[in-house]
């Protein structure tokens, strides 16, 4: 941007010089001295204006001055500073352009946990199970298909997952009656218990849940007794199961904290951890592959599984786990408008900002959170 330039129509100093050259030596000026005062004032004003319009280089200086002049308050920090004299001694700057110093400042401010849409949530760290963040962590809510986490835990404790199962449940009829997700079982099929567990945890098959319950306990109701015994064994006081699949039913509830602990317990079992971390699986049948409904797998860095769920009463639910940089977090979200947004936000916060509580006193944190 070119500078503004001014042309003056007269030069008082040049006229004065000419008069002095024509006056005889020693002769006083005929012009009264008070007439020079207006000329001095004009010169002073002109000098100020020229300085203001020409000081500073480029558009930045002009813009800074213009902004300052148009503000009610014009403070020094709103005006572009003058160039520093390279010969002047260095002064201590207000801010140091030092990454290490910036990191130390950042460390002083703990980032708060993110807002979420869920009615309840819990974030626990492994291996100690410390509760590092929670929202209504002990509120009793409908878990939907997160129930199947407990179903799987009971199954691996009660039977050899390599055993063969003769299917009696009709998945198609169950889906037509309840509009529930199914694995696709048909009566007369012969499958391994491991196939049923994949069908339970990947596509969230309610037919697989019922088949597992009836194979192990003889009925859904008796299997629920085993599920609640497992809950009591883990010391969880805000959970009660009435069925193995998670369809809404009176007396069927859990809490964000309890279901996160159950998810962590599932990951301790190598077989179940491998299942929930699998994106698709081909059962030993002539049907199609079953696919994992958990979209975090393959999308979120370090995702390990665990389980998603949904019913109209429960809303969207998830237990999600991820491991990075030597830390593992399990996040549970109940009653969410978007489980992936909520779970991702909580995991991101946990890896970036959650204090590490899994030290020597980790067990104390677990005891305090229950």
Topology:
Layout lengths: L11 H11 L13 H19 L3 H12 L29 H9 L12 E7 L3 E6 L11 H12 L5 E3 L4 H8 L11 E3 H9 L4 H12 L2 H14 L22 H13 L1 H7 L3 E2 L8 E2 L11 E9 L3 E10 L2 E10 L2 H15 L8 H8 L1
Antiparallel strand pairs: 1-2, 1-9, 3-4, 5-6, 7-8, 8-9
Helix pairs in contact: 5-8, 5-9, 5-10, 7-8, 8-9
Q: Average the pLDDT over all residues and give the rounded result.
A: 77
Number of strands: 9
Order of helices and strands: HHHHEEHEHEHHHHHEEEEEHH
Q: How many domain units? A: 2
Q: What is the CATH domain class of the largest domain?
A: Alpha Beta
Main beta sheet strand tally, sense and closure: 5 strands, antiparallel
Amino- and carboxy-terminal Cα gap: 68 Å
Question: What is the CATH H-level superfamily of the largest domain?
Answer: DD-peptidase/beta-lactamase superfamily
Strand order of the biggest β-sheet: 2-1-9-8-7
Shape annotation:
globular
Low-pLDDT runs: 1-32, 48-109, 361-370
Known CATH architecture of the largest domain: 3-Layer(aba) Sandwich
Helix count? Answer: 13
Strand content bin: 5-15%
Alpha carbon gyration radius: 38 Å
């Amino acid at each position: 941007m070119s500078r503004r330039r001014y042309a003056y129509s007269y030069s008082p100093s040049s006229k004065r010089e000419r008069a002095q050259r024509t006056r005889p030596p020693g002769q006083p000026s005929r012009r009264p001295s008070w007439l020079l005062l207006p000329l001095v004032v004009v010169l002073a004003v002109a000098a100020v204006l020229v300085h203001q319009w020409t000081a500073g280089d480029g558009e930045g200086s002009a813009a800074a001055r213009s902004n300052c002049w148009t503000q009610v308050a014009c403070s020094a920090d709103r005006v572009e500073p003058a160039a520093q004299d390279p010969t002047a001694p260095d002064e201590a700057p207000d801010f140091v352009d030092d990454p290490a110093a910036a990191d130390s400042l950042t460390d002083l401010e703990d980032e708060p946990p993110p807002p979420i849409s869920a009615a309840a949530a819990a974030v626990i760290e492994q291996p100690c199970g410390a509760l590092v963040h929670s929202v209504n962590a002990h509120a009793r809510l409908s878990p939907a298909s997160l129930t199947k986490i407990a179903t799987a835990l009971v199954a691996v404790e009660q039977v050899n997952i390599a055993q063969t199962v003769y299917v009696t449940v009709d998945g198609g009829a169950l889906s037509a009656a309840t509009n529930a997700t199914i694995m696709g079982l048909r009566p007369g099929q012969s499958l391994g218990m491991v196939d049923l567990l994949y069908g339970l945890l990947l596509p969230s098959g309610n037919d697989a849940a019922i088949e597992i319950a009836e194979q192990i306990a003889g009925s859904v109701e008796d299997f629920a007794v085993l599920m609640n015994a497992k809950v009591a064994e883990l010391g969880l006081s805000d959970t009660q199961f009435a069925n193995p699949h998670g369809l809404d039913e009176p007396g069927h509830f859990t809490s964000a904290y309890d279901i996160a602990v159950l998810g962590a317990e599932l990951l301790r079992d190598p077989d179940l951890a491998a299942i929930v971390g699998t994106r698709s699986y081909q059962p030993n049948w002539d049907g199609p592959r079953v696919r994992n409904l958990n979209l975090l797998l393959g999308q979120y860095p370090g995702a390990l599984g665990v389980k998603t769920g949904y019913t109209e009463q429960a809303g969207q639910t998830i237990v999600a786990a991820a491991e990075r940089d030597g830390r593992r977090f399990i996040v549970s979200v109940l009653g969410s408008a978007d489980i992936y947004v909520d779970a991702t936000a909580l995991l991101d916060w946990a890896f970036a900002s959650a204090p590490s509580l899994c030290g020597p006193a980790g067990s104390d944190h677990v005891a305090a959170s229950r």
